[in-house]
Amino acid sequence: MNAVQAKAGPLLQVTDLAKTFGATHRLVPKGFSVRAVDGVSFSLNEGETLGLVGETGSGKSTLGRLVLKLIEPTSGKIEFQGVDVTGWQGKQARSLRARMQMVFQDPFGSLDPRMTVNDLVREPMVVHGYGKDDIEVRLESTLLQVGIDPRMGKRYPHEFSGGQRQRIGIARALVLEPKLLVLDEPVSALDVSIQAQILNLLRDIQRRTGIAYLFIAHDLAVVRHISDRVAVMYLGRIAETAPRQSLYAAPRHPYTKALLSAVPTPDPARERGKRRIPLHGEIGSAAAMPGGCSFHPRCFRARQAATLPGVEVEPWRDTRLPRACMREVPVLPAGVHRAACHFADLVDEGLNEQAPSPSCQANAAVGAV
Amino acid sequence: MQSQSPYALEIRNLRTVFPGPAGPLPIVDDVSLAVRPGEMLAVVGESGSGKSMTFMSALGLIAAPGRVESGTVRVGGVDLVGLAPEALRACRGSMISMIFQDPLSGLNPVFTVGDQIVEVLRAHRRISRRQAREKAVELLERVQIPDPRRRLDDYPHQFSGGMRQRVLTAMAIAHEPQVLIADEPTTALDVTVQAQVLDLIDTLRRETGMAVVLITHDLGIVARHADSMTVMYAGRVVEQGSVARVFADPRHPYTRSLLRGIPRIDSPVEGDLMSIRGQPPLPGSVRHGCAFEGRCYLGRGRVDCLRNRPELNIIGDPEHLSACHYAESLHDEEMPA
Questions:
Q1: I need a surface site. Which of A28, A149, A249, B117 has the fewest CB within 10 A?
Q2: What is the pTM of this model?
């Protein structure tokens, strides 16, 4: 398996991708721009799931759209199946859509209410010039695959519940047998009992077809459940990326730590004793990006690092922060478990954390090789 | 008349109906719940389970053709059901108030935050504008908005989502109500901000003895913040009890499935999540038997589940209730892997 992948290279390789939304509107002052995605690199192998988590404004949805070429990047490179597709336009870009597809958050807004389920699922095949008989065969098998009874095919979207509509959206995306599915918050609009159905369905489809997922979500537990690897985004950059197990068991970036500590688990006994890591303020805006490490205004670790001997500091508001955090953008180092932090190896004090178990440390060590 | 009740809010046998093609549909069906001063009750359920409608009914906010058919809603010895609109308006805000999910639509974009708080303050109390402004500064301070005096003259769009929810909370507690209903107050917020807003609500209830009802679908939040919980399904209460007790020993198949069906950040991820098959029934559509029968892992077609509506009964602990014919005999082994 690994040998094959090594030979073929990753399915998707994104290098230094950036998207700046500029001042093109007359009401927006000139020179005002938003760096929604700011130098992001990652790769995705066949049959793999990369989870992309982040808060509102972290750029995760923009990144998904860039990958699908729904919007044009300002700079950077996108390679799909070893081919540079960054500059592809029109017909070429459309041919790409047969191989990468998207599932949207809103199962109500993303289906044309005037089309039947059959027509909705047929549409992509018609656009891509499939034969009539082929279309009918694929229609039935795809509906069965997502758990929709083909006899319901003549019905309209409003006759279905949210979970079923999301299944129809998935059928539409799957019918061309793409290699990659970009899923943007696919379960966040669904009820808890329906979320589990859709997550299980997605895992099941991946096992059977070997499709790769770029799974974008804000829910850390959902992302953990479905992903092989996870990337945490903050203001347009990847703060930390690692295999799922080591990211959740031994997070290294202070933002990841704070995020994980804020997620309440459904376990009253544990929750009552848990101390959360307080963050200073709220997520900044990509329109007024803080200099240096964009997380420094909220970072607890920077405040601790500033007290260490030998660390150069600068005054900041009513305290002092390390000069590096305020001036230099931290780079994502090479390796498997990677955190973009100037003080990634610093042991955080006063967080009252449980020490990571030996197996996690071993994993992390393997990852660093 | 009722002697001193131990509860800040007590809802008894509340029933709200909407007209349907075959007679009235009970959207809220015989719901009873109560919360003590200073405590937080979480109300859990899916969309359409009637959890929001229960409290809209309690506050007299149900629009025609819906109507509250029967039941009582007691706040501080006053029954809100059947109060004249004027009297009800006087109670809302001063005795019981509500905050909603979407912090943007709760504020008027063309007035400053200060003006809106002042308006709320002067709605129930005869105080001067200046006094009201002073009080508004105090309130913003209470909800931990930095630099409150300056922020008073800002417009809602100048506040972030979390800060807007704080402003709405400030308005809701302006008259020191005995009960605060918070309907999914943090669903639209990011997880780190969600934690801050919920901690604030916790602090306020500890300081003031205000009772809080938290309507939510997030069982993690329930585990962290609430004292007791009510699980609703298809307009009815299916399980009720202390949070510790219900999580440790859920006595309804729906609650058990919910707890097993959510991905967690601290449990093994191998294997599938336990999912509940099918869809929740349309509100008011189940007329006989148990509403959960078609989705229950115990299996369909059990005669008593099909025919008889299970009553909410005490299970062991007098405050732990479950509406399942098999509440006493549920075991983990029966659950599908």
A1: A149
A2: 0.88
